[in-house]
Amino acid sequence: MALVVQKYGGTSVATVERIKDIARKVVAAKESGHEIIVVVSAMAGETNRLLTLAHQVSEAPDERERDVLLASGEQVSTSLLTLAIRDLGHPARSFLGHQIRIETDNAYGKARIKSVDSTRIIQALKDGEIVVVAGFQGVDEEDNITTLGRGGSDTSAVAVAAALNAKVCEIYTDVEGVFTTDPDICPTAKKLDRISHEEMIEMASTGAKVLQIRSIELAKKFAVPVHVRSSFTDVQGTWLVEEDESMDSVLVSGVTYDKDEAKITILRVPDRPGLASQIFTPIAEANIIVDMIIQNASEDGTTDLTFTVPKADYKKAISLVEKTASVIQAKGVTVDPHIAKVSIVGVGMRTHAGVAAKMFQVLAREGINIEMISTSEIKISVVIDEKYTELAIRVLHAAFIEKQGNL
Amino acid sequence: MALVVQKYGGTSVATVERIKDIARKVVAAKESGHEIIVVVSAMAGETNRLLTLAHQVSEAPDERERDVLLASGEQVSTSLLTLAIRDLGHPARSFLGHQIRIETDNAYGKARIKSVDSTRIIQALKDGEIVVVAGFQGVDEEDNITTLGRGGSDTSAVAVAAALNAKVCEIYTDVEGVFTTDPDICPTAKKLDRISHEEMIEMASTGAKVLQIRSIELAKKFAVPVHVRSSFTDVQGTWLVEEDESMDSVLVSGVTYDKDEAKITILRVPDRPGLASQIFTPIAEANIIVDMIIQNASEDGTTDLTFTVPKADYKKAISLVEKTASVIQAKGVTVDPHIAKVSIVGVGMRTHAGVAAKMFQVLAREGINIEMISTSEIKISVVIDEKYTELAIRVLHAAFIEKQGNL
Question: Residues of A with CB below 8 A from B92's CB?
Fold first, then answer.
């Protein structure tokens, strides 16, 4: 008898009928001899419905209260799934964040889990019950309700699996696992049987929307075996694993993209110490996350500074940047919201040179101009004109993944 | 500066616009110099929507899980109202049942409040915040979520007012206060300026839907001044007060009715000890609440036993009763769902004889047949044919209230 944690996302519990389907799936797993803990997200659409309500009563909703509001979504799906399981004749019990003290810091909207009290879950499992846990929510030290951000239920599931030392944490999605790239754009995309934590983190942070990054970090830290798989079929999905030597031979595991950023350039910034901080401090204070930053020193003592921000924030960012530009006597500000970031990710890059050069070559051959470049140990990202996104993905996938290993 | 508790029901927070209206009302009260605690119900219709979902996933929803589900309704309205108040520039903070430990017993769906921890509320008030408390919900000793039953937010409000020693607990409704009878049926109905706890309890238990009975009991026990008033006007409503001598002169304070019961009669029950218990035990075990019971001993050693149950339960009750009737060899079972219970309530009855006789006379004069009678110290209820309900109310109101004091 193994302890299995299963996480179901919002589309899996979007309707009464789907909730009943999941209940049957959960009961089947239990009847096959496992102890089951289920972690659920809110019914699809519910979080957005609640957010809309929040914005209807308040222009800038207070974060603590918004989290109280949003947490109700998981409370509904959790109790409904528990009711559906019980209706099939199996004992089941729901737990909200405060009932099993999923304790987090108090960063509302993006809280980080610090601990989970497993006492009540262990007792419920001993009583033969299927345990259903509300994802996405926790409480801080003072019992204020917190939420974990988009994809937070993944992290709830891994944290519960870690606290209970589960044999596996199964993340159910509407795809069959983690793919080498988006199959909708590139029909030759392949499902990966396994992927290292580091690669998964880079893929998630460059646009793959399979798992919340924090959940991968937790899985690595507590050695939780994570299995990303389809809620519609029984085929094996993708396992998240520790990196091993056999992976070195694979140069690139995935090609990702992100169309949600905009590019801002400040022209002719005087090249003096302290100016970068003068530019980025107001942006940080407005809670705008800057992704890539590039600065080219020029010979006339000025420099062009280019960076990217989320598209949703770029108007706010421009107005802040224009103020600073005038204060520091830069020449002006230009902006381009029609960009895309395309990345290749693979642990093989650590031991193989020439990957970046080949990437640039492949793109140049198609006439795709590279506007920005950013690299990490196992990732290369380029910013290009948005209209070339799909083409870039297909040629990079062909060059690096379909012809694996040829530099 | 006085501490005021205000309770708003579901219709007051039914839409985003109404929530904003209430927020303005609350802020005005705060700005007039009071400390304010607001207790809210779920948005009108929400509790029923959630109950429907529960019944769609489960034929007989588990009570613990149903309470988790229902409590989410108040979580939404509470956080939305807090957001709306903050949007007006006033600090405000929401508290759910578990955050201020509104501790109840574990009778899911009809839990009774045992205590409220006022620590966090006191701190928030000290910080100058308007406090918004989720009505209708609490937690038991083990932190399981409980709900208090229909009208439970009234009881939440009075319990919070008692714990904080508030100067007044204002219950806002869509009428101007407590009326002598239903103004929709009887246009001469008058608003009562004050009413004793005992009378209010009897009126609530015989059909007046103004306050949850438990809230009146708590108000009496902890001497909480309760003011039932309109959310649309500023006129004085009805105060709930301790009975005093001046009230004795008023024979009847209110005329109430209840069309939600059905009558069941078991014919020719052998008149043996223990048979009543044999009949009512299975009904009690099915959680069906029996209201009135009448038994007439006859000369042939048998008796006809008549009682009333909620209309919603009467089919279940009949099948149980028919089984018992055949076991105990009664002659048969008849049922009448088309009945109404009409009651008159008044503390003056304690000191004046002849009220019942006059009531029967007034009804007889209109040809209304009395099928059952039940009395308490300050109330007389009669069961009549449902079709005479409105007529009975009007003639009783005319005889006892419009011509106050004439026997």
Answer: 65
Report residue A379 as tokens.
């990732």
Walk along chain A (407 residues) in steps of 10 and give the mean pLDDT of each run: 95 96 97 97 96 96 97 98 98 98 96 97 98 98 96 97 98 94 95 95 92 96 96 93 85 94 92 84 89 80 89 92 92 94 92 88 94 90 96 96 66
E strands present in B126-198? 130-134, 137-139, 145-147, 168-173, 194-196
Biggest alpha carbon–alpha carbon distance for chain A: 78
* Distance (Å, whole) CA B318 – CA A157: 49
> Cα separation of A264 and A381, whole Å?
17
Say if residues B225 and B168 touch (Cβ distance below 8 Å). Answer: yes
Looking at residue B40, what is its pLDDT?
98
User: Per residue in B48-57, pLDDT tens?
Assistant: 999 999 999 9
- Residue B366 in contact with partner chain A when CB distance is under 8 A: no
User: pLDDT at residue B277 above 90?
Assistant: no
Which residues of chain B neighbour A83 with C-beta distances below 8 Å? 54, 57-58, 61-62, 65-66, 69
Instruction: Say if A15 is an interface residue toward chain B (CB within 8 Å).
Output: no
Pairing relationship of beta strands B261-270 and A261-270 according to DSSP bridges: unpaired
Q: Distance (Å, rounded) from C-alpha A161 to C-alpha A7?
A: 10
Q: How many whole angstroms separate alpha carbon A172 and alpha carbon A186?
A: 23
Write out chain B residues lying below 8 Å of A131, CB-based.
Answer: none
CB distance from B124 to chain A under 8 Å?
no
Nearest CA to CA, how far is B157 from chain A (Å)?
20
Tokens of A341: 């970031």
Neighbouring C-beta atoms of residue B275, cutoff 10 Å: 19
Q: What is the pLDDT of residue A265?
A: 93
Burial code of B5-44, b = ≥16 C-beta within 10 A, e = fewer? Answer: bbbbbbbbbbebebbbbbbebbbebbeeebbbbbbbbbbb
Is B83's CB within 8 Å of A16's CB? no
Any B CB within 8 A of A79 CB: yes
Convert A353-383 to b/e letters by CB count within 10 Å (16 or more is b). eebeebbeebbeeeebeebbebeeebbbbbb
- Global pTM value: 0.89
Interface contact A14, partner B, CB < 8 A: no
Mean pLDDT within B366-380: 91
For B16, name the nearest residue in chain A, comparing CA atoms only.
A57
**pLDDT tens column, B96-112:** 999 999 999 999 999 99
pLDDT in tens, B310-335: 998 999 999 999 999 999 999 999 99
ipTM rounded to 2 decimals: 0.86
Structural domains in chain B, CATH included, are 3-174 (3.40.1160.10)
Q: Do B16 and A75 touch (CB under 8 A)?
A: no
Measured at the CA of A202, the angle between CA A185 and CA A108, to 5 degrees, comes to 105
